[in-house]
Specification:
mainly alpha; Farnesyl Diphosphate Synthase; two-stranded antiparallel sheet; 16 helices; 1% strand
């Protein structure tokens, strides 16, 4: 399997779908919709929606038509984009660049940026509950999917992790706290992405258990890789300021374990994630490739 081609094709499909479901930039209120599209269309790897699609394919087969899958996958990108807009705000990480472009609040102002994030979060659930887009998903599965996304995004997931991350800046936190931050701020939505794709495709309990383990492992590997890139990457590669974690006094895996040990830990997690997929055949090859890509990426 050519992973590069796979990722490119899925990203193109997701981008086209998002373009079709987002309000036009000139729809009232224009400033809000231009702000939303500015961040959604800024690029990005679309890792979360691609993971949802790849998990569905692992369960149902690569040629299967899974009803509502693009809506489920795209809702994850809307939530991720909202989190980036808010994360970049002066009250949060106060970043000037995201994906190689000025951050949303630098272009549209803080008020509109905050509201654009709010709108993206709520629109994700609009998309998930809209029969026009989600039709065909069994009602029981859909309720489970919506709750999975809500929990992963909120106080017990991403938002909770962000709060602990902010409150830990400049403090000598322990390794347990660092693990909590990584598992919630980044890992929760990545794990949910894999799970909801599998749920949409009708995964069995055994399949869902295996894919959950995969999602947990790659979620942590992804954040460790980010920690490493913040030290070894360049602004051109990662599209934002480098060394920002150190400047803000954030504890990271390299701060606790050193760079080489962090790389080894990320590699161990990838091996574990791939091992979790042993119950699947070739239909899970994209997930296997994505796991390895996560620790080798440059952005």
């Amino acid at each position: 399997m050519d992973l590069k081609t796979y990722l490119k094709q899925k990203k193109s499909a997701i981008d086209a779908y998002l373009d079709g479901v987002l309000p036009p930039a000139d729809a009232m209120p224009e400033s809000l919709h231009r702000s939303i599209r500015y961040s959604v269309e800024a690029g990005g790897k679309r890792v979360r929606p691609v993971l949802a699609i790849a998990a569905a394919e692992a369960v149902a087969g690569t040629d299967a038509n899974v009803p509502g899958l693009m809506a489920v996958a795209s809702s994850l990108e809307l939530i991720h984009t909202y989190s980036l807009i808010h994360d970049d705000l002066p009250a949060m990480d106060d970043d000037d660049f995201r994906r190689g472009k000025p951050t949303n609040h630098k272009v549209f102002g803080e008020s509109v940026a905050i509201l654009a994030g709010d709108a993206l979060l709520t629109y994700a659930f609009d998309l998930l509950s809209n029969p026009e887009h989600i039709g065909g998903v069994k009602p029981k599965a859909l309720v489970s999917i919506i709750r999975e996304v809500a929990v992963a995004s909120g106080n017990m997931g991403m938002v909770g992790g962000q709060v602990v991350d902010i409150e830990s800046e400049g403090k000598d936190v322990d390794f347990v706290t660092l693990q909590y931050i990584h598992a919630h701020k980044t890992g929760a939505l990545i794990r949910a992405s894999v799970r909801v794709g599998a749920m949409a495709a009708g995964a069995s309990p055994r399949q869902l258990k295996a894919l959950t383990r995969y999602g947990v492992d790659i979620g942590l590997a992804f954040q460790i890789a980010d920690d490493i890139l913040d030290i070894e990457g360049t602004q051109e590669e990662i599209g934002k300021d480098v060394g920002s974690d150190i400047a803000r006094g954030k504890k990271t895996y390299p701060a606790f374990m050193g760079l080489e040990e962090s790389k080894l830990r990320a590699a161990e997690l990838v091996d574990s994630a791939v091992d979790a997929l042993s119950i699947f055949g070739p239909s899970a090859d994209p997930l296997r490739g994505i796991a390895k890509y996560i620790v080798s990426r440059k952005n």
